[in-house]
Amino acid sequence: MTETTHTHTPLDLSGEIITAVYALKGTLKEAAETAFDIGVEQTVEFPLDLIEQDDIREQIVGEVLSVETIDEDTHHATIGFPMEVAGRELTQLLNVLFGNISLKPGIRLLSFTLPKNLLMRFGGPRFGIRGIRELLGVSDRPLICTAVKPMGLSAEALADVAYRSALGGVDIVKDDHGLSDQDFARFEERIKKVVAAVNRANGESGHRCRYMPNITAPADEVISRALLAKAAGAGGLLIAPGITGLDVIRQIAADDGIALPILSHPALQGAYTVHRDSGISPGTLYGALNRLAGADACIFPHFGGRFAFSPDACGDIRDQTASVMGHIKPIWPVPAGGMSVDRVEEMITFYGKDIILLIGGDLHRQGPDLARTAKNLMERLELIDPQRPSYAPK
Amino acid sequence: MTETTHTHTPLDLSGEIITAVYALKGTLKEAAETAFDIGVEQTVEFPLDLIEQDDIREQIVGEVLSVETIDEDTHHATIGFPMEVAGRELTQLLNVLFGNISLKPGIRLLSFTLPKNLLMRFGGPRFGIRGIRELLGVSDRPLICTAVKPMGLSAEALADVAYRSALGGVDIVKDDHGLSDQDFARFEERIKKVVAAVNRANGESGHRCRYMPNITAPADEVISRALLAKAAGAGGLLIAPGITGLDVIRQIAADDGIALPILSHPALQGAYTVHRDSGISPGTLYGALNRLAGADACIFPHFGGRFAFSPDACGDIRDQTASVMGHIKPIWPVPAGGMSVDRVEEMITFYGKDIILLIGGDLHRQGPDLARTAKNLMERLELIDPQRPSYAPK
Fold first, then answer.
1. Span A269-292, pLDDT tens digits
2. Residues of B numbered 21-80 whose beta carbons fall under 8 angstroms of chain A's beta carbons: which are they?
3. Cβ contacts of residue B6 below 8 Å, gap of 6+?
4. Of the candidates A45, A224, A327, B392, which lies 20 to 30 Å from A61 by C-alpha distance?
5. Is-contact B248 B241, C-beta < 8 A?
């Protein structure tokens, strides 16, 4: 007994709930127990028999809404958490959905929904699918993105790579995510030189290629780099929320002084998705959470590339970039990770035409004339039926 | 060929290297290939045959220094990365150590070392073991910490829990990590009331209990909450770097205007350590990285509690809180997660006397008089031989 009844203010909750679905390993009985434990661990984190306030035990603790058997060893449990436990914050929402239970094996967060009055606190992506199409003046074809690399080149040499890619008509030139502020190409110099190079290419080609530099940076420098990039004329921002924390994306997306598209990069996040029995589903991590935070596009490994993602994982991401989420806009899937030019049609079939095709090394492999290669690729895209439907999620 | 030779500035690297040891699954041949791939993926992320600058291929790409077979299916590879690829930043260092390869199964980061000129860029913990002992005036016994909970109590009721814990003489009263800024106990009101309660208890008891509130918060509010806590008289800060990003700890530790001990909480980080074959070793994640960033103490699940951590995992954390790391101070291990009062001696034997014993629910289970229970526990600690050596890492 904590003997605090005399100072306890009775709860006055709305009744609106966050729901979260978890895949749980074990027998049905074990899964039911784990589901119950999740409701406790993610809220009061305290033995229920020691809580003397009935309203805390009955209203704050997450409630098991259902446990469904998928196979002998796998069950899906839906837990309802009162919206108030997440307060007003994406950070505390992450903590409620998967904070402490990330430390337990055999629990995987598959999906979540927010009640209207919590969802309304999040602005989501500033641009999304339509907003980026408008910026680029591209009404219905897939987009092409390539990366400025390799690390070790000077700012001037990187700008030259960007110039030649942009000249061929690619829509987006982004920094390689490993380019930060190294001596061989300091951030400010790189941004200025690459912006100038892309602008020069656009002037010559008539295209509207946008350069999106990497602003993944120390906590006290992310915003200043975003503002510096904006002031220098960058056309978007690349950031790795696994390194900076996801909420930085929310902060940037909401900032009217920045107002640039945000590409989210999965660096350091793979540990959440690499095992099927734990962590967070790819669709929730790379799709729904990026989207809720306000990323306009999410990069992830397409199956069959350098990374061992499955078609199921990629389908989950595709679905959760576009599924119904109140006023929160759908975002661009950016399948990547060793994609080759000859897989373009296959990827469009899988994701629909609302896709950013990120092709790095393989663009260079087509031959020394990068502008010509990019142009060939863009022409190939023009041949794809503009009436091809976007992928419609279930 | 990228045709950029004409603009390439020859590299002028120091030759100092970051080393990282990875556990790799598969045959020795597969492990050797994976090790080579890591050197490429974590630096240039580009096909080597397409890099025409010899110095980038030879100096930027991570070099496989050794591959050692542990058992038929497990090998330890040591990779050397030029210090310059990490620039000046903890964020880019994280990216080099485990960014993209987090997305690949069968790769686990076991440990890393930094060369002197990179390590010098990090201040590490402001207090560490000795600094916190000095603040508390406790020269050589283990410390006791308890948590203010459960969520759902008002600020006033939480302050009452803190008062009664502090009155019994516990050294640290921390917020439960799920307390953020919810309606039932808003951040500012909670901090003020709990600080006042702990100060009142100290005045009555003569102890120096310190209250450490949770400042895990939206990206644009973490620092303002830290400053508010400081101004209100808090004695330390609790933060979950898995939610905020690890670099926020570095930022706070370096801030002379805050200058408070930092307790790091593992919420959301468990996905990195929950599988043995991938992710990051517990010692590196909860020990070395927290320490490098500047946390003074790291909370993690002790084995045999609510979480399935192994003795090996806890030993790894213990070792990496205290191992040689240049000028970076050793930090406090804070084993937790359902620890009971009757395990205190066992935990001190395992970790040594430089340990913060975090006991939450079980302190309440001893009976309604929390101050008496805390006092009994503190008396029990006094009986432990003060000559008991600290745990000495190998």
1. 999 999 999 999 999 999 999 999
2. 37, 41-47, 50-51, 53, 55-56, 59-60
3. none
4. A327
5. yes
Strands of the sheet containing A262-264, edge to edge, are: A237-239, A262-264, A297-301, A332-336
Of the candidates A51, A219, A250, the beta carbon closest to that of B245 is on: A219
Strand pairing class (A143-148; B279-280): unpaired
The C-alpha atoms of residue B298 and residue B287 are separated, in whole angstroms, by: 7
For an interface test with B, the pick among A243, A251, A281, A300 (most B C-beta atoms closer than 10 Å) comes out as A243
Burial B263-276 (b: 16+ CB within 10 A, else e): bbbbbbbbbbbbbe
The Cα B110–Cα A273 span in angstroms is 19
Q: Hunting for tokens 């003060």 — which residue is that?
A: B386
Whether omega before B150 lies within 30 degrees of 0, making that bond cis, reads: yes
B102–A269 CB contact, under 8 Å:
yes
Cβ-based neighbours of B29, under 8 Å, separated by 6 or more: none
pTM value surpassing 0.90: yes
Q: Beta strand B172-175 with B143-148: parallel, antiparallel or unpaired? A: parallel
- Split at pLDDT 50, 70, 90, the class of A307 is confident
Q: Which two tokens stand for residue A156?
A: 């001037």
Structure confidence by residue, pLDDT tens digits, A81-106: 999 999 999 999 999 999 999 999 99
